[in-house]
Amino acid sequence: xxxxxxxxxxxxxxxxxxxxxxxxxxxxxxxxxxxxxxxxxxxxxxxxxxxxxxxxxxxxxxxxxxxxxxxxxxxxxxxxxxxxxxxxxxxxxxxxxxxxxxxxxxxxxxxxxxxxxxxxxxxxxxxxxx
Amino acid sequence: xxxxxxxxxxxxxxxxxxxxxxxxxxxxxxxxxxxxxxxxxxxxxxxxxxxxxxxxxxxxxxxxxxxxxxxxxxxxxxxxxxxxxxxxxxxxxxxxxxxxxxxxxxxxxxxxxxxxxxxxxxxxxxxxxxxxxxxxxxxxxxxxxxxxxxxxxxxxxxxxxxxxxxxxxxxxxxxxxxxxxxxxxxxxxxxxxxxxxxxxxxxxxxxxxxxxxxxxxxxxxxxxxxxxxxxxxxxxxxxxxxxxxxxxxxxxxxxxxxxxxxxxxxxxxxxxxxxxxxxxxxxxxxxxxxxxxxxxxxxxxxxxxxxxxxxxxxxxxxxxxxxxxxxxxxxxxxxxxxxxxxxxxxxxxxxxxxxxxxxxxxxxxxxxxxxxxxxxxxxxxxxxxxxxxxxxxxxxxxxxxxxxxxxxxxxxxxxxxxxxxxxxxxxxxxxxxxxxxxxxxxxxxxxxxxxxxxxxxxxxxxxxxxxxxxxxxxxxxxxxxxxxxxxxxxxxxxxxxxxxxxxxxxxxxxxxxxxxxxx
Lengths: 130, 519
Known about the structure:
A: alpha+beta; B: alpha/beta; globular
């Protein structure tokens, strides 16, 4: 089982960042994918390469500001759990953490890389101008 | 008009692959002629022994710790220095045709430009940060091993010869690991009989596209063309029509292969512990070899077959180079053409009972073919250079040929014309770094080659501890079978080499940047 984690500190209050991160249908606004569709607790995302992933959403906790999902019905991915947390840093900013645990382990690396790019985009979108 | 630069690279090729370096199997007349008319480097090392870090060094003129591409899967930042950009700003037309690999190949999100260029069928993209063409190349037309993925060669195959794609070996398995499935006559991993027509194989495609790009240039253009062949890197699946060139049944086992398993294992046990871990299949530190293959199972016949196929691929590369040189000559550029030939790293090809590559700093992986055939108009005397040089000197060499100042980001002098020039330029040592951090398996090595010694210091990791290392006397132990790290008789040499190593390594970029793909 591969376990990866990416994080970023953003100079913006946690609730504002969560408003986007906690909206599963808006993933394409910050994550490097081209389209998102949500029906109930199922999400489909489409990558620039044309690949589509089907995902089960099993945690969307607006109080905890935690989102968890699994890639499902994929012949290559045998196990997956993704977790995104937006945590108030106590100083008016927040920490966004994106974790992925999955098998086969090699798949975790490109997902981690995309998560890193997504977190950087969140920072650009939300960081207060100095 | 200035001098034209044809930079030719292969991938994963040994020093002894070429006839001019003592190779006795593959016929390489084109490269032998370049050597005879130019400068041949007998102790050229990469700054890292896997593709992306080594290629990033070629492009930037920087050591790995400086450019930060410490492992395959770690992308070179888009705004990293590039000698192609420097040359382009000096008026050169620039192209890279074949294998680039400054960015991860495995890229389902299409985050990286190399993959996007192929997927979109275009040959350049302006960088958002630098406003230059990506990496400084006016034209990038890309290929890798096989015909899957988004790169230009794969798209060309899909359009023109889709029925031939499956003839290639499938490099990765369903887990995205390097495939361990065996083939050929002996069941060797990454071997397959490939029924593809030779004219469609990626070696000839790279040469054809290079000739086409050169044909698009005006007669008075100055140009820098990096022609980058994906072979003889695994998989070993050259066109089946060419297998008659070298029959594996006719080959001797290579000098570096130790037939007696007990002797072989004793040699491995004398090295840093990760060697034996990999041999036994208990410690896979990186993605450069099949995770589900145990090197200890490698047979002599499998070594012979892999070597035969490698020699065949080397012959095809040589013939492709010959065609490109003829095309250059026909344009009237022959007198002003500099050719530099090298590769990014070596390959075990059976040495120590191993295949592939990894954290193993010995000649199999570090001693590379490197030839500079200066333009005839430069009137440089042919020579062989014994002094240690690195691929880190390529960028400065290109700048020197083009007559532009030494770029400030470049960390090494140009390649020398001869050994006296090497001394004058300060080519006294060459450094190689290794860092792998893969789901809890950690190997860090720092190596210096100087005065015909190779000294590798292990940094703390999963299997090695600080204070451990390897020390080889290249004069008396050319196969590096005897690790003299703990030999009191050479303690002073070891300490001198280590002091020199720590003095000359660039400041490390820590923490290591993220690894965004397995390859």
